[in-house]
Amino acid sequence: MRSYICIISSLLLLFTSCGQVTEQDVKELKKTVKKKIAESTADESFILDFTTEPKMVQMYWRDDQKHTFKSFDSLDQWLQTEGKSLRFAMNGGMYMEDNSPLGLYIENGKTLRKLNTRSGKGNFYLKPNGVFYTTRSGKAGIMLTEKFKPSADMRFATQSGPMLVIDGKIHTAFDQASQNVNIRNGVGILPDGKVLFAMSKSLITFYDFARYFQEKGCKYALYLDGGISKTYLPEQRYEDKTGDFGVIIGVTK
Q1: What string of H, E and C letters represents the secondary structure of 178-243?
Q2: Would you tell me which of 40, 41, 84, 232 could form a disulfide with 208, CB atoms 3.0–4.6 Å apart?
Q3: 31, 190, 211, 220 from 145: Cα distances, Å
Q4: How many whole angstroms separate alpha carbon 224 and alpha carbon 142?
Q5: What is the per-residue DSSP string for the chain?
Q6: Which residues pair with 233 in a beta bridge?
Q7: Rounded to an integer, what distance in angstroms lies between the CA atom of residue 253 and that of residue 59?
Q8: Are strands 184-189 and 181-182 parallel, antiparallel or unpaired?
Q9: What mean pLDDT comes out for the span 222-237?
């Protein structure tokens, strides 16, 4: 899909420079690109996903010496010193230049970063944004930032944005005809309470990515990041352990 869009873009530039393309031609080409993207994203093979029980989900940011893990590889090496290893990992929310979480971060019941209710530019601030969390009682949820209230039962939490699906509906800011495509990853809560993590294998719009979660039955889903998105899932041949992240969400074995 990425190569297809690049070819179309190159042809547009070439034809425009030669004076051989009209405004109507441009519109028709854009429609074609949109149609191809929609056809691809309608196919589940376009999405890499992983489903797990809430109790299996853990979040990592820094080790015991307060060194930021950043990559899946460094996290996995640290886990191996404790007799564990990664089964699954995904970047878990937006972060600042020093790899610290941009918003709320709770690890093992401790609040390490406070809830971010500020306004600003960028995807994180495309409100409503939200918080993905798990509890000590083995449940998971996604809550709008404006409604979020921490509890003593909370085990892990990471804040990101924007929300993808809100009460079963796609975020109203997403345009079905948008040309804004990127690699994207996110998380949703399935009807049975399990957690669904997903990453697009190629370029996708916000609308189509949100639609994926909606069609899976998620009443709530949260965008984690785009562009830098990576997933470690060796059972599906995704074995790249590199990265430069803030929070990492993982499942161990």
Answers
A1: CCCEECEEEEEECCCCCEEEEEECCCEEHHHHHHHHHHCCCCCEEEEEECCCCEEEHHHCECCCCC
A2: 41
A3: 36, 20, 21, 13
A4: 12
A5: -HHHHHHHHHHHHHHHHTT---HHHHHHHHHHHHHHHHHHHTSGGGEEEEEE-GGG-EEESB-TT--B--SHHHHHHHHHTTT--EEEEEE-S-B-TTS-BSS-EEETTEEEE-------SSGGGSSS-EEEEEETTS-EEEEEGGG----TTEEEEEEES-EEEETTEE-TT--TT---EE-EEEEEE-TTS-EEEEEESS-EEHHHHHHHHHHTT-S-EEEEEESS--EEBGGGTB-------SSEEEEE-
A6: 238
A7: 15
A8: unpaired
A9: 97
The pTM of the full predicted model, rounded to 2 decimals, is: 0.84
What is the gyration radius of the CA atoms in the chain, in angstroms? 19
CA nearest 92: which of 69, 63, 109, 110? 69
Contacts for 237 with CB less than 8 Å, ≥ 6 apart:
none
Task: Please give the pLDDT value at position 11.
Answer: 52
Angle at 45 between CA 4 and CA 8, to 5 degrees: 10
* pLDDT above 90: residue 6: no
Residue 218, CA distances (Å) to 103, 104, 211 in order: 23, 22, 10
Q: What is the mean pLDDT of residues 86-102?
A: 97
Q: How far is CA 12 from CA 7, 34, 205, in A?
A: 9, 15, 21
